[in-house]
């Protein structure tokens, strides 16, 4: 192990994996091809008013057809691993029962193409594209969806279990609960507020059942990816603001980690889940995992909620930090604090961590000479990678880092406006143009490895 001091990491631990991440609905397009069924995101994006400028994922980056070109872009980066997601509605168009072999064929081509190029495949089984028929039957509000998810997981592992290196059951179940079912700004667009809590439990149960199903079918390394946003009280000296930050932390961070690593729900939510959690569920959910996937973008600042507000906190603006194109504050120090905080909170039950997403959007444009000068992204990534290196120096066991994202893509309710990629995508021509950050990331990870 070669490593030097704070802010000057000439080497991350041997075997540290550098990668890029994407998700199926955000890049694939080809929504009606080869037997794919509709997902909640197709329905949502085709409902006027939900997604900015009426954008949808029908074509996206056309990765479903252009994957060989995209594999070449990855090879050019020299990454160790690629994190992608499998679209459940391609594999099981109705969400249960009949398997669509052509859907599995696509991911098999992709995985084999990665292996041929020496890139280790990291597959996420669920990055928010729930088959619409399952939503029609209650979606994640229904316990049955957990069992359907495990069935789907076993189908994918049956085909790819011998070739996928890392399996990620769920991507950011908190976002599905909060933005999908509580606030109603992501698919399926339900605004149930705190009544959305069962969707947390049912996703976590699906995770636990899937871990078991995957292990039974040759999966080597299994984990879950959670989104973490460090909770800052608006006024650290104000008890009501502290309580609001504590409530946010319990509902948005700990709710999805405590059950997995400790087999318990945070005190604040446990009473509300009493009727939903069955006897053996927490034992299923806390099945040992091999790694925790951590996605980090920004901290959140919380104030006491208004009287009779629907939530125990109010989100307020963070000032005094530079922001990304989406207005998100850039706070690399909070990333390091988050990693050290996980180590502190979970101690010896914390498995190795992979940073499965970290990145930023800017309105990157192609300059007349054909270049995309995204210096701000380079600075963002450099500062955040340094924060990870510092956390490793402080004893946090981080084994890899995937930047979000390989290329510009469909940014959910924001449509195609925000650009998160190392590679620019022209949505008229679908032409890919590596940005300056692409060459920078290639060189950076090469130098950090040697
Ligand atoms: C990740 O979510 C996702 O995994 C990935 O698919 C996505 O592209 C990436 O981040 C970049 O956003 O609607 O204004 O209330 C990160 C967590 C939570 C950030 C939902 C955006 C919506 C803000 N996301 N949040 S808003």
From TrEMBL:
<dbReference type="Pfam" id="PF00232">
    <property type="entry name" value="Glyco_hydro_1"/>
</dbReference>
<keyword id="KW-0326">Glycosidase</keyword>
<keyword id="KW-0378">Hydrolase</keyword>
<feature type="binding site">
    <location>
        <position position="127"/>
    </location>
    <ligand>
        <name>substrate</name>
    </ligand>
</feature>
<keyword id="KW-0624">Polysaccharide degradation</keyword>
<dbReference type="InterPro" id="IPR033132">
    <property type="entry name" value="GH_1_N_CS"/>
</dbReference>
<dbReference type="InterPro" id="IPR017853">
    <property type="entry name" value="GH"/>
</dbReference>
<dbReference type="GO" id="GO:0030245">
    <property type="term" value="P:cellulose catabolic process"/>
</dbReference>
<dbReference type="GO" id="GO:0008422">
    <property type="term" value="F:beta-glucosidase activity"/>
</dbReference>
<feature type="binding site">
    <location>
        <position position="26"/>
    </location>
    <ligand>
        <name>substrate</name>
    </ligand>
</feature>
<protein>
    <recommendedName>
        <fullName>Beta-glucosidase</fullName>
        <ecNumber>3.2.1.21</ecNumber>
    </recommendedName>
</protein>
<feature type="binding site">
    <location>
        <begin position="411"/>
        <end position="412"/>
    </location>
    <ligand>
        <name>substrate</name>
    </ligand>
</feature>
<dbReference type="GO" id="GO:0005829">
    <property type="term" value="C:cytosol"/>
</dbReference>
<dbReference type="InterPro" id="IPR017736">
    <property type="entry name" value="Glyco_hydro_1_beta-glucosidase"/>
</dbReference>
<dbReference type="InterPro" id="IPR001360">
    <property type="entry name" value="Glyco_hydro_1"/>
</dbReference>
<comment type="similarity">
    <text>Belongs to the glycosyl hydrolase 1 family.</text>
</comment>
<keyword id="KW-0136">Cellulose degradation</keyword>
<feature type="binding site">
    <location>
        <position position="297"/>
    </location>
    <ligand>
        <name>substrate</name>
    </ligand>
</feature>
<keyword id="KW-0119">Carbohydrate metabolism</keyword>
<feature type="binding site">
    <location>
        <position position="404"/>
    </location>
    <ligand>
        <name>substrate</name>
    </ligand>
</feature>
<feature type="active site" description="Nucleophile">
    <location>
        <position position="357"/>
    </location>
</feature>
<feature type="active site" description="Proton donor">
    <location>
        <position position="172"/>
    </location>
</feature>
<feature type="binding site">
    <location>
        <position position="171"/>
    </location>
    <ligand>
        <name>substrate</name>
    </ligand>
</feature>
């Amino acid at each position: 192990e070669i490593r030097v001091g704070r802010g000057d990491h000439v080497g991350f631990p041997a075997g540290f994996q550098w990668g890029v991440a994407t998700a199926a609905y955000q890049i694939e397009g080809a929504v009606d091809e080869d037997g794919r069924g509709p997902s909640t995101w197709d329905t949502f994006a085709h409902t006027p008013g939900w997604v900015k400028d009426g954008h949808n994922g029908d074509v996206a980056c056309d990765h479903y057809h252009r994957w060989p070109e995209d594999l070449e872009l990855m090879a050019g980066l020299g990454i160790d691993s690629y994190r992608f997601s499998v679209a459940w509605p391609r594999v099981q168009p109705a969400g249960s029962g009949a398997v669509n072999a052509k859907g599995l064929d696509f991911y098999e081509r992709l995985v084999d193409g990665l292996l041929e190029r020496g890139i280790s495949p990291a597959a996420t089984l669920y990055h928010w594209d729930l088959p619409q028929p399952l939503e029609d039957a209650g979606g994640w509000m229904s316990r049955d969806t957990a069992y359907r998810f495990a069935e789907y997981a076993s189908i994918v592992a049956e085909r790819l279990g011998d070739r996928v290196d890392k399996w990620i059951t769920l991507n950011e179940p908190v976002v599905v609960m909060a933005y999908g079912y509580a606030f109603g700004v992501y698919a399926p667009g339900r605004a149930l507020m705190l009544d959305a809590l069962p969707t947390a439990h049912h996703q976590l149960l699906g995770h636990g059942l899937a871990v078991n199903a995957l292990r039974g079918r040759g999966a080597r390394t299994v984990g879950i990816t959670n989104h973490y946003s460090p909770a800052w009280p608006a006024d650290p000296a104000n008890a009501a603001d502290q309580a609001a930050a504590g409530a946010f932390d319990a509902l948005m961070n700990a709710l999805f980690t405590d059950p997995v690593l400790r087999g318990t729900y945070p005190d604040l939510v446990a009473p509300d889940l009493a009727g939903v959690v069955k006897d053996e569920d927490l034992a299923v959910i806390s099945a040992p995992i091999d790694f925790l996937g951590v996605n980090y973008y920004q901290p959140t600042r919380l104030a006491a909620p208004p009287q009779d507000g629907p939530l125990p906190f109010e989100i307020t603006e963070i000032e005094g930090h530079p922001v990304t194109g989406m207005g998100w504050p850039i706070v690399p120090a909070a990333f390091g604090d988050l990693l050290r905080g996980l180590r502190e909170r979970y101690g010896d039950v914390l498995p190795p961590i992979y940073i499965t997403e970290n990145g930023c959007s800017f309105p990157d444009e192609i300059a007349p000479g054909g270049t995309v000068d995204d210096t701000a992204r380079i600075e963002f990534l450099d500062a955040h990678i340094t924060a990870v290196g510092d956390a490793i120096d402080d004893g946090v066991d981080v084994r890899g880092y995937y930047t979000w994202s390989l290329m510009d893509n469909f940014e959910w309710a924001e449509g195609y406006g925000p650009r998160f990629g190392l590679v620019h995508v022209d949505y008229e021509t679908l032409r890919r143009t590596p940005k300056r950050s692409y060459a920078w990331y290639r060189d950076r990870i090469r130098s950090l490895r040697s």
